[in-house]
């Protein structure tokens, strides 16, 4: 009886000491709080998983990696963290800047060992891409695989395992020594273990969460049954530009347009305005910083947010950055010259075997520019959930 009585006394006394004293408590997210302050609140996460998507948007390449608030939060940290480069100077956001619709105003972006071989593609609405492959040359079968390839590139972020670089395992070792990553991986995955697969899942969730559906186009599209109808909020010029964009052209035997629209939607169908999966090269075959031709570029970002609301381009266009205005982009497709050696030119650009001649007039060019500007929103540039979580 005495032993049982003493045990009864000792147990509550032990709990009383440990529960009433805060000295034994260790905050499991102390490093996250110390590093990010109020920029990341793990008790009140930003809404990544349940953002409003218009009912007319039907494409979704999420597959087996659905967006979660936890996963995208980790992805945001990884996206902006310069520790992911070998010399701590470059992050994903260095080349994909929120202020420029997650692209770069430089033709070639700076990496740890030089400049990139292609212009940084905008990341707007990557989740709603019709084409599931990524990179200009579509070498990544999924967005997940794409996310860690720049990290493993000698020029871009420097964990290539070649040319004296450490491999990706060196990055894993590095991240394991950073306190906030141990806490964040435990928070997201239930384990402190860091793997390339987990990094890919989180980065892809964050990138897929970056969406833009607050444009003038979206306001109009919500008011009609289909894209072919005139949008009540559009000017006559914008509606004309939309019809030109959507309608296929009529060509004569030598590739000259004789009627119809200009067929942009043949490769960039509304309402996602992503590139069609079966697209070929678009006639731009140059290389950045080197000679020769490159006919492998068949991917493109969505046409949404080509420009800011003031009409300023979010960086130069095409993989070489050779196009520096909407007028120049339209002009390129207006007259396609089939270059020697370009065996991969999209068939839609060479009707009857000839490079297309769309024979624009000034009114049509201005109408197309007016329509393309309606595809830009405003929230994507300012929403804090896509911003840099590291204090300046």
UniProtKB/TrEMBL annotation:
Domain Cytochrome c: 236-376
Location(s) in or outside the cell: Cell envelope
Domain of life: Bacteria
Annotated GO CC locations: cell envelope
UniProt keyword terms in alphabetical order: Heme, Iron, Metal-binding, Oxidoreductase, Peroxidase, Signal
UniProt xrefs under PROSITE patterns: CYTC
Protein name in UniProt: Cytochrome c551 peroxidase
Organism annotation: Flavobacterium sangjuense
Gene encoding the protein: ccp_2
